Amino acid sequence: MELFLNRYRNLSVLLVAILAQLVLLAYQVKSNQEVRLIRVWAVSAVTPMARVIEAGRSSLSHFFSDYFVLLDVREENKRMRAELDRINMENQYLRTELSTADRARALSIFQQHSPSKTIAAHIIGNTTGAGAKSVIVDRGTSSGIQRGMAVITPDGIVGKVISVYPMASYVLMITDPAFAAGVISQKNRVHGTIKGQGHSTVIVDYVQNEEKVEPGEWFYTSGDDLIFPKGFPVGEATVVRPGKTHKEIYVTPSGLQNGLEEVLIIVEGIHTMIPDSPPGSQPVHLLSSPPDEGGLPAAAAPAQTGPLSTDADRLVDRYRKIGEAEQHVYGERGKGAPNFNAAPEDYGPRKAPEAKPPEYKQPPNP
Amino acid sequence: MTEFPAGYTEPSHKSTVSKSKVAAIVGIPLAAILFQVYVPRFVATLSYLELPLLVTVYFSLMWRSPVAGVAFGSGIGLAQDSLSPDNPLGMFGIVKTLVGYFAASVSQRVDVENSVVRLVLGFFFFFFHQFFYWVLGRALLGKALDFDPQQTLVLAALNAVVAVPLFRILDKLRLTG
């Protein structure tokens, strides 16, 4: 130090003098915020260093913290993966349960509304025969099942019972090559026989080329086979083309579209009518009509009119009643219009015209 | 050869010279400062004449010692600051300390008796003084001081012109011998 000061004496003196005056300057002068300059300089000189030191300390701290955290992360990751797998399985199980519950509910509703008497059954297994399409259900003779009974779902027919055991039965599926049933088309009422082919589609056989079947047309059971009651949906024709002697009609079975876990076995079948619209058109929920101007409850009008369900129908009915009450024939010339403002109730019951027959006046004899 | 009797001493003359030298060393800077402070009040154009600076340069050049230059520069600068109420202590002090140091350092390498050299040094140190004062004012105090390079160069030339005869007068006083 002494050597340094001797060697750079002049420079040292200069630095000391400058430094002393800088301190003097800083002590006197205040910044805009009324803080002495020496304090500003000191803070300005210290804070960057403090910031650097703090950044270093923070980085070091984070590094070690992350390191120790990482030691535990692998174990935690493994545990979380196991937990995720468990939750996924549980989720899948609950979804399946929910789906099963929905199907069971749909089956129950269908069972209640179907005129045929049915027994619900679970599919518990498949047969092992090559090409065979049959399943085992958990209902047998103990439940009243007999060989030859039809098996259906709310969406359509599934097959028929081919062998029965005390606690189970074999059901031949509609897609099995040995399966056959009588069907009828919805639109043109063409009769045929449905046969399985061993895969997902079935064919309708014995339909003459001259008969009219359109693609998209629905087929229903005809009841001719004495197994399936008439009126159950079979499927929609996807391909229709003329063959050598008969038409080639391919049908996608509707009963197998949504998977198969629960089925209904028809123990007492009742024939129903072939519906006018295909089963794909779902029923539309309609609210009850609003109250009319007379303050009658909305439910009252439909109850009186029976099948009349729209305002237009009720209006036509009202005019018809007024016409009958006034013995007016709509469309007849020279009689004017009836009093549409009069309420039908003013004329009493419908036999009012008999109660008050119009008087007949003998024309004067010339 | 002149022989002096035993016990002869020559202090009376030397001490007189020494006292007068000290008085001059104190008095001349003081006079320069007073000139700088008071004269411009009556003759405004003379405010551009930086006599304390020229005196600092002269003494630093003649003494050829940076330490002495630093001491003299800081002393005259602080004194100038003290007499300038709008200046915090240290502004002129720092600048003149540097001027004293550099002037003394230069004097160790060049012939400072030469008038041309004195002219150049006077010009350079005035410009350095003004420029560094402006830098300090902006950097340390945050003051928006004016600095016109062209004007400063002209004033530096004027001060340099004044410096040459001033230095000759001071030479006659033999203050640094």
Task: Give a brief outline of the structure.
Chain A is an alpha+beta fold and 366 residues long. In chain A, 35% of the residues lie in helices and 20% in strands.
- What spatial order of strands do you see in the largest sheet of chain A? 1-2-5-4-3-12
Label the overall shape of chain A.
elongated
Element order of chain A: H for helix, E for strand? HHHEEEEEEEEEEEEHHH
What fraction strand of chain A? 15-25%
Rounded to the nearest angstrom, the distance between the terminal CA atoms of chain A is: 164 Å
* Overall SS class of chain A: alpha+beta
Write down the domain tally of chain B: 1
Helix content of chain A: 25-40%
Overall structural domain count of chain A:
3
Name of the CATH class of the largest domain in chain A: Mainly Beta
- Class from helix and strand fractions of chain B: mainly alpha
Number of strands of chain B: 0
Uncertain spans of chain B: 1-5, 7-14
- Average pLDDT value of chain B? 83
Largest sheet of chain A at a glance? 6 strands, antiparallel, barrel
Helix share of residues of chain B?
over 70%
CATH architecture identity of the largest domain in chain A: Beta Barrel
Mean pLDDT across the residues of chain A is 79
CA radius of gyration of chain A is 46 Å
